[in-house]
C-alpha cells in the first residue's frame, strides 16, 4: 500500500459531502421545529429571523470570543482550545486540496508553520479540550446533572477524542516511512519511534488504515452534530447573533385589538411562544449556569430555569408543540417563583432567556386561568381597585412631604417630574428616599415638581402577568403626562425606570427617564452638588437587578458612593449581583416556609463584607434588604444612595 491516492481522496470527499448534507438536513429539522412558534413582527429592511436584526456585537463577543464562558476560566480555556484547534485543523485539512494542482503543502514556511507546528498544536488543543469536557461529564458535575441532563455529550466527546488520536497515529505511520522526521510534528515523531520495528509493507498498511479511520471518524462526527446536543455549536452562535441589543427581559406586547382567534394571553404550549424562544430551547445545552445564579433555585424553591428549559426542549423534540399540558408540567409554583431578575439571561453563554418563557406561562395563568398565589391575588385586586398593590398600609399619599414645600409640576416651567411611584408613596421607610431626593434637587438648583396625585407605573401588574392591568395603568399615565407636557422624569425605583424606559414607548410615551442615582452622579460631576467624603466610611453597594442587568446602569451609583466614602464590593456585584427577591411581584409573596428567604441570603452577603452601611438605588431593594437587616439589631444598616448623599451635602453647594 502507499499514501492515499486521488481516488481515496475523492471517496472521502464524497463521504464528507454526505456528512455535510446530513448536517444541513438536521439543521432544517430544527428550522421546522422553531417555525412552529409564534411569528414576530414583519421583517423590516435588513432584518432577519423573527424580525430580529443581526447583532454583530453579541455575535462577536458571545459566539466568537465566548465572553460569558470565561466567567469560569478553566471552562473558557477548554472551549477556546477546542474551537481554536478545530479552526486550525480545518484549515490544515482543507489545504491538502492544493496538492491536486501540484502544490507541495509541506514545503516552505507554510509547510513548517501551518502543516506541521500549527496542526500539531491544534491537535493537542482539541485533545485537551475534549478530554476536559469528557472528564467533567463523567465526573457528574452537579450543575450538569441537577434539574435534568441532555444525553449524547459523552458519546460525541469520545468520538472527537478518537478522531484526534487517529489523526496522530496516522501521522506517526506516515513519518515512520520517512528517512528523517521533520521538525514540528513532534507528537507524530514520538509515536513513530515506537513503529521502528515494522517493515515497509506494514507501515504502508497501517498508514492507510489509520488515514481512513481518522477520516471516517471525522466524517461521522460532522454528520452527527445536528442530531446531538453538540448542535449548540451552530445554534448557539445563531442565537447570539439574534440577541437583542438591550439586555435583560423584554416581554413582547400583546395586541388586545386582535380577533378572538389570534389573541394570545401568554402561552400554555410551545406553539404560543415566540420563535426566538423556540430557538432558545434548541440552543440550550443544559449546562446549568442559569440554575447556579437563579435566586429561587439557590434558596431551595420550586423554580429551576434549567429544568424549565429542558422540559420545554423535550416537548419540542417529541413533536409536542401543541400540547397544552406543558404549562402544568412546568408547574405554577415554579412559574411564580421567578423574580424576573434576569440573572439567567445574563449568564447564559448562548443568549437564551428562560425568564421570558416563564413569564409567558405566568401571563397565561393570570389572564386566562385567573390562577395566582393568594398574596399576589390580593396585590392584583388592590392594583385594580386602588391603583397600587399595597395592602394594609398606614401611610397616606401625602405623608412623605409633610413639613416640606414641594412644588407641583408646571407645564412649560418645570424641567423634571420627580416621579414617586407606589413604594415611595405607601411605604414609610421608602418615603425617606423622596425627602432626601428633594434636599438634593434643591441644593443643586434643579427645576423639579411632582404630580398632584399618587400613581403607579403598573410594573407590579406586568411582572405578575397581568398585562391587561398594566396597559390600562400605563395608558392613563401617558395621557396624564401628555396633558402636563412632561418631557423629563426622575425615578427613585429601578422598576419604575424600567417600565417607563422599556415598555411605555411601545404604548406611545416619548419622554426621557433618568434614575435618581444617575442624575445625582451627573450633578456631582458637574459641580452642582458638593458632598463631604469620609474615607473611613465603608459602604457596600447592592445592584438592583432592574438597573444593572436590565439596563446596564452599574458605574453611576458607584461613582456617587465613592464620592462619599470607601466602596467595598460584595462577592456578587454589578451584573452578577444577586437579586433582593422583590422582583416579579414577589415583594408580596408569602414565600415557601421550607426555603430560605432570598433577601436574607443577600443581606448576609452584604453584612459579611464588613461595611458599616449597605447602599442601594431601588425602593424595593431598600425595603427587602432593610427588612432582613433589621433582624440583626436596631441600628439602621440599609440606605438608599440619595439618603447617604443628602447627609453629606456641603453648605457651599447650590446654585
In short:
The protein has helices at about 5-35, 55-65, 75-95, 110-140, 140-145, 155-175, 185-190, 200-225, 230-240, 275-285, 290-295, 295-300, 305-315, 325-330, 330-335, 345, 355-370, 375-385, 420-425, 430-445, 460-465, 465-485, 495-505, 515-525, 545-550, 555-560, 600-605, 620-630, 640-645; strands spanning about 415-420, 450, 490, 510-515, 540, 565-570, 615, 640.
Coarse morphology: elongated
Helix residue percentage: 40-55%
Radius of gyration: 30 Å
Strand content: under 5%
- Which superfamily, in CATH terms, is the homologous superfamily of one domain? Transmembrane di-heme cytochromes, Chain C
Write the SSE topology.
Blueprint: H1 6-34, H2 56-64, H3 73-95, H4 108-138, H5 142-145, H6 153-176, H7 186-192, H8 200-224, H9 232-241, H10 275-283, H11 289-293, H12 295-298, H13 305-317, H14 326-330, H15 332-337, H16 343-347, H17 354-368, H18 374-386, E1 416-418, H19 421-426, H20 428-443, E2 448-449, H21 459-464, H22 467-484, E3 488-491, H23 494-503, E4 512-515, H24 516-525, E5 538-541, H25 545-551, H26 555-562, E6 566-568, H27 598-607, E7 613-616, H28 619-629, E8 638-640, H29 641-647
Parallel strand pairs: 1-2, 1-3, 3-4, 5-6, 5-7, 7-8
Helix pairs in contact: 1-8, 2-9, 3-4, 4-6, 6-7, 6-8, 9-10, 10-13, 13-17, 20-29, 23-25, 24-26, 27-28
